[in-house]
Amino acid sequence: MPHTPARVPPELLHGSSRVLRPRDATGVYAHPRPEFARLERAGALHRLATGYYVPVPDDQLGRDWRPELEAVALGIAVADEGTASVALMGLSAARVHTAIPRGLAIAVVATSRHRPPLHLADRDAMVLFARRRVSSLDVQHHTGELGQGWITTIEQTTLDLVARPTLGGLPDQALNAAHALLARCDRDLLNELAVTQRRQASLSRLYSVA
């Protein structure tokens, strides 16, 4: 009899994020954790971090696949809090906006609550959660590798990078990205955001060296 490959139950794949947690499967499995471990051993699930998994795409089965770090950060945040209150920001938004050409070992995502950094299991990297009220940020819709959510706009990203360049521990890259994004900004919107968010001094410093 031919071997039937393991598959993630389709009823687990309909959320805004493809990131799955064992608690999401309580209506499918009586004991989700051992079932997730079984699916991981079979190659159907990829473990991102303790308690977080993602289905392996059909065209990547049997390969050494792992999703992009920025997609992982947003996917985990959406899985935990939903799409409305989280957004990629800072260094991660700059990376998606192509202002940082090389991959990073840290991702930054805005969330509604304080939580410790999450160290990933599939690479030497971590997700940093910054408490922000996403409804007060300028964001745009983003469809990534692991689902949908929000990302700060180019203008908001520029302002965040210059206001908090040390967030993520890479201040030089943050400031370089801010300068790269400045040329693509709507200056009127950028100035308006700086006034609304009381970051005029930070923006003035950026203008002074632009």
Shape type: elongated
| Strand residue content | 15-25%
Query: Residue ranges: pLDDT <50 for 5 or more in a row?
Result: none
Helical segment count: 7
Oligomer: single chain
Class from secondary-structure proportions: alpha+beta
Task: Record the strand order, biggest sheet.
Answer: 3-4-6-5
Q: How many beta strands in the DSSP annotation? A: 8
Major sheet attributes: 4 strands, mixed
What is the number of independent domains?
Answer: 2
Explain what you see.
The chain has 7 helices and 8 strands; from the N terminus they run αββαβαβββββαααα. It is α+β, with helices and mostly antiparallel strands and 210 residues long. The protein folds into 2 domains: 10-60, no CATH class; 69-208, no CATH class. The strands form 3 sheets. Strands 3-4-6-5 form a 4-stranded mixed sheet. A two-stranded antiparallel ribbon has the order 1-2. Helix 3 (90-96) runs antiparallel to helix 4 (154-163) and helix 4 packs across helix 6. It is elongated.
Give a concise summary.
The protein has 210 residues and is an alpha+beta fold. It is built from seven helices and eight strands. The chain has a four-stranded mixed beta sheet. A two-stranded antiparallel ribbon has the order 1-2. A two-stranded antiparallel ribbon has the order 7-8.
